Amino acid sequence: MYSVGVILLELFHPFWTEMERNDILTSLSKGIIPKPFETQWPVQSKYVKLLTSIDCELRPSADQMLKCELFSEKENVIEDLQQKVLSLEEENERLKKSLELLQEQMSSRVGIESPV
Q: Coiled coil where (predicted)?
């Protein structure tokens, strides 16, 4: 069940580098969840905490998880996934704009550095 908790975190929390992923997963093993994840995904955060509990007796069973609020209402799952898609689309647009800005900066540098 611990692995299910890790996968749940990975589904909803992007990792930008392998080092960041390692740091977050190491912290998770100590019961620490990233604040942005807790803020944006409070229900998922609750279950990540339960599933990755240091005391394995506190971890819910697969049957308990299937009956929990994450899966009990199809609308919750769909709404959460739609919110995740929107979040990723916004991040994608932000990254595209950053890339365009960097390309413009590189182009202007090339124009300045090359002799006319």
A: 71-108
**How many domains are there within the chain?**
2
Q: Are residues 103 and 78 in the same domain?
A: yes
Do 14 and 57 lie in one domain? The reply is yes
The verdict on pTM exceeding 0.85 is no
Residue 99: what pLDDT?
A: 92
The answer to whether the CB of 70 falls within 8 A of the CB of 41 is: no
Q: How far is CA 61 from the centre of its chain?
A: 23
Instruction: Round to whole Å and give the CA distance between 60 and 1.
Output: 7
Token pair belonging to 25: 């997963």
Q: What is the CATH number of the domain that holds 21?
A: 1.10.510.10
Q: Which domain holds residue 24?
A: 1-72
